[in-house]
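Quick check before the chapter quiz. The format below is the same one you will see on the exam, so make sure you can read both the input and the output lines.
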Amino acid sequence: MRTDNGFHYSILFVPTDKQTEVLKVFELFFPKERGSAFAPMREHWRRDRKEIEKRLIFPGYIFVCTDMNRLELHEFVKTHRIVADTYIKELVLHAPLMTGVTPTCEENECLLGDLTEEESSFFEEMLDDDGILKMSVGYMQDGWAVITSGPLAGREELLYRVDRHNRIATLTQSFRGIRMTAGLEIKPKEET
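Here is the expected output.
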């Protein structure tokens, strides 16, 4: 989903083992015309299985793309947290993601954490419409990766480190203090 027409992203913190259940609550009860919720995922190469699988980028965090203001979304969360038989915490604005620290706020008194314009743009450029960061493909030339397809194509400046063996790229882009990773398969130049 894109953030045009007054839509923006907000972040919710949920217990990792309840993430799927909370997403189901959003799917069932969140007004479709007001937006949607998703857990960003990335394609990940499993060497042991020799296949690509999807893996959560931010375990325990749900992104909501909506035109609701903070109070409306807060009321929706407050009303439906019991349906998911769990608690949902709304992140305090600018609370860092994945620092190992649970957001500190009263369950019913939190402000929502919205993504910055830069963060929103990055996710819109990199994630597909289902909230998935797809694998990219490229080749090595003079010690540098050249990306030929996927979300990293034409964005080689984002590459910080390439792990050819595990088919993963560490990006220069960080998200709230966490360095991002993306799937990247390096092939011989003639195969790309």
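If your answer matched, good. The two ends are 30 Å apart (CA to CA).
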